[in-house]
Amino acid sequence: MAGPMAVSLLLLALGPVAAGAAPAARADAPGAERVAIPLAPGLSASEHAALQRSGAYGGRPVRLLILGDSVALTLGMGLSVRSQSRYGVAVSDHGSLGCDLDPGLQVFIAGSAGPATQGCALWRGLWPFMVTQDQPQVVALGLGRWEVADHLLNGQWVHIGEPAWDQHLTADLQSAVAIFHSIGARVVLFTMPYVDPSDRQPDGMPWSENAPARTHAYNALVRQVARDDPREVSVIDLNRMLSRNGVYAASLDGVGVRWPDGVHISAAGGQLLQREILPVIDHIGMENETAAKAHA
């Protein structure tokens, strides 16, 4: 987990967060139909044509709002690069540093207890405002980095994979999904990717919260939340995309996809994943738009 110094370095490295790629020329503007828009990796010709017809490359992009922790934040920075001109997706990246859905609980991290991080302390009030303001067709939520840590719940230390914490965390995630549903957005839940920070126990083993077993348990819970609401909630398996061989990987296809801290996703990594993630967002967003028009 990131301490105060690591968080400060992360803030310096991130700089201003891009709200999305610069829009392409409007497909519905005079003469715009003569502008050839290249087919982006991961899109079929028919999907590309459907996006052109809908005006996604111009004034009517698929609107994606990214929320969650700093892993989601750094992923969104790469996904945002030329996202509309290439995929017809306008990305609004509002991940937060230190986003723990239960900021009032004590956590046990790296062998010691302390207060939870406060990056999403006001999420129950702030996220409804954000989705109402942005009016996204798709909200993607990326969490897990803090949820896999031990938390002091009702006087007992519990963690992911134990019934008491699983039930509590499931209720939190369902509350978040309900917020996004309230404005008609479809929801994507990212699985948590494996992490490999250099900070380890004295015997060289990873701290419990960094072990793959915790990642597996969190991702199983995410999939269950999606199964409980299959028409409105989808899962994008970020862990599989970043860990093709089932283990943590710092690079893919010769591209460094993770930060040196072993946790966050590089800008180049986010751009590499555009071809796997943004076509899915296109499909969900356009499906949602069609359904909204049918019920209008």
Explain what the structure shows:
- The chain is of the alpha/beta class.
- It has nine helices and eleven strands.
- The strands form three sheets. The chain has a five-stranded parallel β-sheet with strand order 2-1-5-8-9, with helices on both faces.
- A hairpin with a 2-residue loop joins strand 6 (150-153) and strand 7 (156-158).
- Helix 3 (70-79) crosses helix 9 (267-294) and helix 5 packs parallel to helix 6 (163-181).
- The chain is globular, with a radius of gyration of 19 Å.
- Mean pLDDT is 90; it is low at 1-9 and 16-34.
- The SSE order reads HHEHHEEEHEEEHEHEHEEH
DSSP helix fraction: 25-40%
User: Biggest β-sheet, characterized?
Assistant: 5 strands, parallel
> DSSP helix count?
9
Structural class: alpha/beta
| Total E-strand runs | 11
Which value, in Å, is the CA radius of gyration?
19 Å
Unreliable runs: 1-9, 16-34
Compute the average pLDDT.
Answer: 90
The amount of beta strand, in percent, is: 15-25%
Strands of the largest sheet, in order across it? 2-1-5-8-9
Oligomeric organization of the protein chains:
single chain
Shape: globular
Distance between the termini: 46 Å
Q: Can I get a quick summary?
A:
The chain is an alpha/beta fold.
Please write out the topology.
Layout: H1 4-14, H2 45-54, E1 62-68, H3 70-79, H4 83-87, E2 89-95, E3 106-109, E4 112-115, H5 123-134, E5 138-142, E6 150-153, E7 156-158, H6 163-181, E8 186-190, H7 212-227, E9 233-236, H8 238-242, E10 251-252, E11 255-256, H9 267-294
Parallel strand pairs: 1-2, 1-5, 5-8, 8-9
Antiparallel strand pairs: 3-4, 3-6, 6-7, 10-11
